[in-house]
Amino acid sequence: MPSRDPGRAAQDDADARWQGSGGAVLVKFKKTHSMRDVRHALLTLAYLIRREPPSTTAVCVLVGSRLSDNRLREELQQLRQVIHPEIASRVHYLVGKGPSAKDSSRNIVAFSGSLTDAPADFYPWLESRVAAERVRGHGPQLPPRQGVIAALAQLRLRNLAPVTVKHLQEVCDVSYPTAAAVLKELTHKGWLEDTGERGVRLRPLTVGEWMELARDHARLRKAQLFTDPTGQSTPERMARRLARLQASKKLPRSVRVGGVLGAAGHFPALDITDAPRLDISVDAEPARVAALLDAGLQPKNRPEQRVALAVHGTREPLGDEQGPGSEPRLASELECLADLIEMGYAREASEMARHMESISKAWRPAS
Amino acid sequence: MTPLPAPLTPEAVVARIAAALPADCRQEVIVVGSLAAGYHFFAGDGQRGIRTKDVDCMFSPHARAVAAACEVTERLLAAAWQPRTEGEWGKPGNSSTPDDRLPMIRLKPPGTEGETTWFLELLGAPKHSSGQPKAFHRVQTSIGDFAICSFHFLALAEWKPMPTPHGLHIARPEMMALANMLHHPVIGPELIAGTTEKRSNKDLGRVLALAWLTAERDRREGTDELDAWADRMADALRDRLPDRARNLALGAGTGLRELMASDGDRDEALAICNRGLLASMEVGRDAFAAVGRRVNQQVIEPLANAAQGWPT
Predict the structure, then answer these.
(1) Which of A9, A181, B18, B169 is the most exposed place for a label (fewest CB within 10 A)?
(2) Is residue B120 domain-resident?
(3) For chain A, which ranges sit under pLDDT 70?
């Protein structure tokens, strides 16, 4: 299977584009302390802006960077000396300040930098995009080994073709020894399919095996639990708010709904009528995601407190085959099954595992 | 110690007021304050009452307010309603009394003499061009001169008030919340008469009580009303106070944020709410603080963000 590097194309594109009545602004976000990264971003923007009308400007927006304004200004000046003045004058940088760690529920971000004449309504838009950038990619990571297993489970359930070890390494961002060790373990358990092709894939798993996999997954991922002192935030309401925040780019699309709501999405026959809490899977900072989702929530710190929101730190490296509609994306079946087990829905989890078993059997290619 | 007023059933009070008013005046009355909130949230729930002494009715539009107030007062007096005589404002004025020294029109329903009970207070819609925080308008009646008061930010209560089957309208909760927030950009020192409690804590606490009740209804009915507050506030500001809309929207949350940052003021606000709109709901400190954070996130910040794009 040919490997792809989805990150490469993205590096050479703008991350966002704001369109105002007087022209567009191309934006590239950078969370870095390295001037080399900034230089690359500014150059990329200079390349991009060549193909744009003269009214378009471009700005590299630094988020959470320790680089000083003086150093950034010098870098921009040097860049402007070596590229065509018509292009150079349209490339800028901005540094986002705040929000404070003490008040992560507030998204207000102030900007300083070389772009000083952007229209007023550009900044609220930029603020919301920066808020989304800030929460991205700072989450507790799933152990790499478990990430590989979760990816293989997804491949099985989606009936994707066997993959090479190299592909697994790339999508799961793991080393060869890690990927190889997982595959060795799965071979030992007899869980890998003899595909007769170049590549690996899980064989269809039984109910018991799916349950075993999900129990391990629940044990190995990290979760942060939040309580609602008012008791007013329902899972459905938070899920609707999540969808709105994602539609307005204030939360990344990588935040996915799991738990009962997610499981019911994958398995409509799920025999649970009311979700007791909202479970979400994130690859971002859980406390910040929770604060953006509902500033009224507090970390659970007493056993008797009811959980309103469970934020699971995980990665779903295989991307998303669900459409870009207005509904939040669902966490994978494995995540949802792990959530059900964690909440104590043993019978319902078994039924969902049976559904997963039937899916993977149904997808089995004819021999 | 002054006894608490008996709980009022909002539905019954609105019905009684409507019945007492001339039919052609009912459409011009917007009920504001705790009765409006109680009616909105508790009408149909015979078990739930509100504790209030003053039932505030505002006449709208401004141009008709004085004439309507005069007509209604005469009608109620003829129906044996009595002017409230307690306190230093117990006697009507005359033609030589300055407007700002006149008593407000406060009328007690018949058959309640000697009881600690509610009274009707008449207010006037503000004149749009005035910009004055508070203005008094003389009302000459057969028993002497009174005044109706207009509060500038009550112009927001005139924005899409909700009809009732009784012919009166009630102000929208989010408009009363916004009026209270704008009226108190800081925690001021003014005390509620006869108490040691700050007026701003009562009014800003009311904002959180209204948000609590809205969120509670959202939970029960699966709606997202609280999330709709910011958009409606933005529309109302641009419609009712267009000259100042941007600055008002940008600064709407300053007083509430101050309340949220002060444990003492917030506790006092909660105590007042728990004797009033939130009575018997057992709202605790953590929950009250959580509502404050939600209002900030779901109402104040989106309102300010929207205003950023408005012309200066």
Answers:
(1) A9
(2) yes
(3) 1-12, 98-109, 134-141, 197, 317-326, 362-367
Q: CB distance A295–B284 less than 8 Å?
A: no
Residues of chain B in contact with residue A241, where contact means CB-CB under 8 angstroms, are 224, 227
Domain A6-135 has CATH 3.40.1560: yes
**C-alpha dihedral (A159, A161, A166, A167), degrees to nearest 10:** -60
Burial degree of B144 (CB within 10 A; 0-12, 13-18, 19+) = middle
Q: Looking at the structure, do residues B246 and B129 belong to the same domain, yes or no?
A: no
Residues of B in Cβ contact (< 8 Å) with A295: 290, 293-294, 296-298
Do B145 and B60 share a domain, yes or no?
Answer: yes
* Beta strand pairing call for B54-59 and B29-32: antiparallel
CB contact under 8 A, B224 and A237: yes
Please count the structural domains in chain B: 2
At residue B253, the pLDDT reads: 94
- Beta strands per DSSP E along chain A: 16-20, 23-30, 57-63, 91-97, 110-113, 222-227, 256-257, 278-282, 298-299, 309-313
What is the pTM assigned to this prediction? 0.78
Q: Peptide bond preceding A99: is omega within 30 degrees of 0, i.e. cis?
A: yes
Position A182: which residue type?
V
Q: With beta carbons under 8 A apart, name residues in chain B contacting A127.
A: 305
Question: Looking at the structure, do residues B198 and B273 belong to the same domain, yes or no?
Answer: yes
State ipTM: 0.87
Q: Where in the sequence is the domain holding B200, given as residue range(s)? A: 173-308
Question: In this complex, is the C-beta atom of A276 within 8 Å of any C-beta atom belonging to chain B?
Answer: no
Residues B146 and B255 in one domain: no
Task: Spell out the domain ranges in chain A.
Answer: 6-135, 138-367
CA-CA distance, A2 to A50, in Å (whole number)? 32
**pLDDT for the residue A109:** 59
Can you tell me the distance from the alpha carbon of B38 to that of B34, in angstroms, rounded to the nearest whole number? 6
Considering only the beta carbons, identify the residue of B290, B297, B301 that sits closest to A230. Answer: B290
Other beta carbons within 10 Å of B254: 16
Tens of pLDDT, residue by residue over A263-301, are 999 999 999 989 999 999 998 888 889 999 999 999 999
In DSSP terms, which residues pair with B140 in a beta bridge? B145
- For chain B, the average pLDDT equals 90
Per-residue confidence (pLDDT) for residue A360, from 0 to 100:
78
Contact flag A120-B309 (C-beta cutoff 8 Å): yes
Say what the pLDDT of residue A194 is.
75
